[in-house]
What does this fold into?
Amino acid sequence: MDRLAAMQVFVRVAEAGSFTAVADQMNVARSAVTRQIAALESHLGVKLMARSTRRLSLTSAGATYLEQCREILDRVDAAEGDLAGEGQTLRGVIRTTVPLSFGLLHLTPLILDFSQLHPDIHIDVDFNDRRVNLIEEGMDLALRITDRLPDTTVARRLTACRFVVVASPAYLRRHGEPAHPDELARHACLAYSLASRSSWHFIIDGQPRAVEIGGPLTANNGNVLLEAALRDMGIAYQPTFMVADALRQGSLVPILKAYGTPRLDMCAVFPGHRFVPRRVRAFVDFLSTRLGPEPYWDRGLGLE
It folds into this structure.
C-alpha cells in the first residue's frame, strides 16, 4: 500500500462524504477507493469511517487522523515546492469554476496566457454563476465575487469589484434621470436574479440601505441585462467589469454617482483545508498579478 496515496484518498473521501463522488473525480471504480480506505484502516488497526446505507461519517479516530493527514500532506507539498527549482515544469490538472460573464470577458485571455506559459498543465474550466460545492465536485478552486466569506473559508483576494448604476442616454431623455435612489421605484429596473430581484444596495447618508426596485426584466446573467440597457429598456445595476466599455463609448452613462454602492472582492476560494498543489498556487499568483489590486477596467472611468 502506498500510504501517502491512501492518505490523499482518505482526505478526499472524508471531505466529499462519498466514495462514489471521489471515484468519479479520480475516474476509477468505487471499489478501488473503498479498497484504499480498507487497506489504510487495516494498517492502522482502527476504523476511520462509519458506513451506512444513507451516510458516511468519521469515527473519533478518523476525525483525529484527518487533521493529521492534512498537516502531513501540506508539509509534503510544501517540501516538494521548496525543492523544485523555478525552472521546473509544472504539470497536472487544474479544475476551476468561474463566474460566466466575468470569466468570458476578463478571465479567458488570462487562462489562455497561463496555459501557453505552462503547456503541461491541463486546465478544466467551468463557466457558471451557481455556487459550486468544490469538494463534492472535485474542484481545485473557484473564483467568486462576494462581500463576505465564512470564517472557515480558505480564500485569497485577487482584485476589487465595484458596481455602478447605468442607463442609456435615450432612456434618460424619455423618462428622466433619478436624482435619488428612492426614485428608482418609478423607473424600469433590470434585475439580476442571483442577487436580489427586488432591491439594490446603496450607501445613503453614510449608511448602507436596500432600495426597492421593479421592472420589466429579471435574468440570471449580466450580459442579458447589459443588452437590455443598451436597447434603452431600463436602468441596470452592473459591475464595472461588465459596463466599462459601454461607459467609455457613451452608449451607457453612470447615474446616482453621489450615492455609493458596496464594493465587493474577486476571490480565489479553495476547497476546505485541502492542501493546495503548487500548480494551483502558481495559477492564482498569475491571476493576482495580472488583475492587480485595483482592476484595469476601472481606469479612466472617473467614477470616484
